[in-house]
Amino acid sequence: xxxxxxxxxxxxxxxxxxxxxxxxxxxxxxxxxxxxxxxxxxxxxxxxxxxxxxxxxxxxxxxxxxxxxxxxxxxxxxxxxxxxxxxxxxxxxxxxxxxxxxxxxxxxxxxxxxxxxxxxxxxxxxxxxxxxxxxxxxxxxxxxxxxxxxxxxxxxxxxxxxxxxxxxxxxxxxxxxxxxxxxxxxxxxxxxxxxxxxx
Amino acid sequence: xxxxxxxxxxxxxxxxxxxxxxxxxxxxxxxxxxxxxxxxxxxxxxxxxxxxxxxxxxxxxxxxxxxxxxxxxxxxxxxxxxxxxxxxxxxxxxxxxxxxxxxxxxxxxxxxxxxxxxxxxxxxxxxxxxxxxxxxxxxxxxxxxxxxxxxxxxxxxxxxx
Lengths: 199, 161
Prior knowledge:
The complex is a heterodimer.
Chain A: H1 3-19, H2 25-38, H3 41-63, H4 71-99, H5 108-149, H6 153-156, H7 160-197
Chain B: H1 2-13, H2 15-24, H3 29-46, H4 56-75, H5 84-87, H6 97-111, H7 115-125, H8 130-137, H9 141-160
């Protein structure tokens, strides 16, 4: 192909594109909004999967609740249920609030204020969740032992190997929580910078 | 609302140009759409900072090309395959296989160039003057001339092969 042919081919591409203009105003603004919303897509997906697992576990506990036949096991069961239903719901709601922030409408100041509030709420929830998960580990353990192996660990206690296992779980949870929280901070900061850029 | 209206109008008017830039720096339809979306977002971000010191198209090319280069760096790859299907998004009533073949060849040639050369070539094909190319790419006008000569030589050699 000669240079002139390259130019002619390119010009024809321009004409074809000109004839096929297909973006509407709505699509253009939707694309802009989506870029912001997408920042939270992965987090929402992970949290949704986590919430589904928690809800499934909650149904499991509820269905077998009558097996928790002492008052302290029943109390542990109630606390476990509260932990695995309330917290995931609150996190999903906080994420939805951020995702629903309309960056096209409203002033920059209002958007940033709303976002900062929602972000702080989300991060506070995460910190609460992390601390609560360490406490809930010891609350969920008797419930799980009773429902899965029909053992009341308040009566028979834990074997030394189980204590070691528990220690390992706590250490792993610590690192996992730290990694997860840093990820949250990274995403929320990136979205905040993105908002500030719109100023 | 005024900003929104002006912005959407601008994108509507120049969507063909944005399509060309984004398709040049990507090799799949999905990637092209993603880059297109990112470019529209970047244009929205900086829309209010545009001060009419240059032509609006010059500014748009600059943002689009910078976004494409950043996108390439992020994905850490160079587009290589030429999927003409994504170039010809284009379901033309006048289906022209000869032209589509030429278009494929043209993109093959363009993909042999490096990132900057590709951008210069695109602007040259868009009939931009050396001055405009210089404004968009940030290269000195004399440098633009030298580079264009080199690119044309490279292309000629490739076309002979």
